[in-house]
């Protein structure tokens, strides 16, 4: 019996997965150009490591796992202190306070962080209230897909619904959440 060879069809990646991967990336980096670059890097890395694809998952799942690593690498890179140039910032030109600060040791702004934290908590609470006011199935699907980040296939199998039904539910849930937030948060 011949050994089955798992092959990928990279010629169809852009048409089949680019939008999904872009939406996945943009929701995590909130920068369109960066999201496009990360997707491009994902496709390139996929091509380079195509021989490692074992077929234990779908191509999309495999590409998403590559993209996740690209996003993690991006955040590690920007949060790393390694390789940062010491940039000196001059705050005072004369007098006893004359001197420079290293950029990474500059005091943080003294804005009222506690007010921001309270407002963020109030916003989270209002979103939870709005989600709780959704029909039970809408709330469950919305939480699974958007908050817990379950894959579409997993949700469909768990709830015995079709993918198109799932997306209709997500759309309706978002519409109702938007209305609830507009009525209870943004118009106050």
UniProtKB/TrEMBL annotation:
This is Sigma-70 family RNA polymerase sigma factor. Residues 14-77 form the RNA polymerase sigma-70 region domain. InterPro entries: RNA_pol_sigma-70-like, RNA_pol_sigma-70_dom, RNA_pol_sigma70_r2, RNA_pol_sigma70_r4_t2, RNA_pol_sigma_r2, RNA_pol_sigma_r3/r4-like, WH-like_DNA-bd_sf. Gene3D superfamilies: 1.10.1740.10, Winged helix-like DNA-binding domain superfamily/Winged helix DNA-binding domain. The lineage of its organism: Bacteria, Pseudomonadati, Bacteroidota, Flavobacteriia, Flavobacteriales. NCBIfam families: sigma70-ECF (TIGR02937). Belongs to the sigma-70 factor family. ECF subfamily. It comes from Polaribacter cellanae. Residues 125-177 form the RNA polymerase sigma factor 70 region 4 type domain. GO terms for molecular function: DNA binding; sigma factor activity. GO terms for biological process: DNA-templated transcription initiation. Transmembrane segments: none annotated. Keywords: DNA-binding, Sigma factor, Transcription, Transcription regulation.
């Amino acid at each position: 019996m011949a050994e089955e060879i798992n092959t990928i069809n990279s010629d169809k990646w852009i048409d089949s997965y680019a939008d999904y991967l872009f939406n996945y990336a943009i929701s995590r980096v909130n920068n369109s150009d960066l999201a496009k670059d990360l997707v491009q890097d994902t496709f390139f890395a996929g091509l380079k490591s195509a021989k490692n694809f074992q077929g234990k998952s779908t191509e999309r799942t495999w590409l998403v796992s590559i993209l996740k690593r690209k996003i993690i690498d991006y955040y590690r890179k920007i949060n790393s202190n390694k390789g940062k140039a010491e940039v000196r910032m001059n705050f005072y030109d004369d007098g006893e306070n004359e001197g420079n600060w290293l950029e990474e040791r500059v005091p943080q702004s003294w804005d009222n962080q506690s007010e921001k934290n309270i407002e963020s908590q109030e916003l989270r609470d209002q979103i939870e209230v709005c989600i709780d006011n959704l029909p039970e199935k809408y709330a469950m699907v919305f939480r699974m897909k958007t908050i817990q980040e379950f894959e579409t296939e997993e949700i469909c199998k768990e709830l015995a619904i079709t993918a198109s039904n799932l997306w209709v539910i997500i759309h309706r849930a978002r519409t109702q959440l938007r209305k609830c937030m507009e009525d209870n948060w943004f118009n106050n």
